[in-house]
Amino acid sequence: TGNSSWWSFNPVAPTAMKKVLNHILLQETRKSCERVCVPDQAQLEVLCSGSSGDIRSAVNSLQFFCLPEKELFMAKRRCVAPRERVQRISMKAGPSGGEEDQAIGGKDASLFLFRALGKILHCKRGKQDASVPEPGLPPHLLQHHRHTLLVTPELVVERSHMSGELFSLYLHQNYLDFFSDLEDVDRASQYLSDADLLTADWTSRSLLEPYGSSVACRGLLHSHSHQVSSGFRPLHKPSWFLVNKKYRDNCLAAQSLFRSFGLPPVCLQTQLLPYLAKLSNPMRNQSNVHPGCGPPVSDEMFWKTETRDSDRQGDRGAAGGGGGAEGPSVQSA
């Protein structure tokens, strides 16, 4: 209707959502005289992260999780030590720290293209803990030392629901705006070239496509020698789409023009059209045109040409006669 309006909200941070859920649990426990099944803090963290910032989904999942029918299930869960349970959840989360376990009423964990590209291009890394010793690298490899990544590149590509090759195209189109050092750009372009080389052969493209996207993503992340400054940067569609559209339009136009030849598209593009282009190049230069096909020659042009030829013959005669003989006189037309 005309009076309706669209409201959008930013995702709620997991820490703020956890405080809200703890407050709801406290109030409901008092009202029900502790007859509800209360999850522990580790399960609450998984529930918060699995809701993807949607507080309504988190409250609904908490409501179903606290049903009395969950008591038997919770008793089995309590048999596991809390520290072991937290370690198990952290192992599922992986190095990203925010990857959610979808076992507890989680929402769809797929990423929009904008967010998926931002996770790779912004190159967010964790801060090094002073108590944890850094890995020892030899002196000639110290420039390759990086802090721990906050994302798993392969998981980001998988959740974007795009092919690895298409995701690499978007990275190749937009990565320059996220670099400030020329040496980092050179290193990133080399990694992108290596990723493109893995999928160059069509016989093994389907097999090596995940490896190509992994090399492209991890190569861009590793090429950042320092943390990228935060801020909004617009993302652009790859130019490959426009080039591919022009290529398909040109193929259709060539097939319609040379339909009588009966050639397949490959022969038409690689044999006939290049041959016709070779034939048309000499016609663009007037000096290569056949005398009968060029513009008419005036008397003045013919007189200059005849005089130039006569002078050359006179020079040859003077050189052959010792320099004393004169060359032939110039005859007019």
From TrEMBL:
Residues 301-315 have a biased composition (Basic and acidic residues). One of its GO terms (molecular function) is ATP binding. GO terms for biological process: DNA damage checkpoint signaling; DNA repair; mitotic DNA replication checkpoint signaling. The gene is RAD17. Keywords: ATP-binding, Cell cycle, DNA damage, Nucleotide-binding, Nucleus. It comes from the Eukaryota. It is found in: Nucleus. This is RAD17 homolog. Residues 286-333 are annotated as: Disordered. One of its GO terms (cellular component) is nucleus. Residues 317-326 have a biased composition (Gly residues). InterPro entries: Checkpoint_prot_Rad17_Rad24. The lineage of its organism: Eukaryota, Metazoa, Chordata, Craniata, Vertebrata.
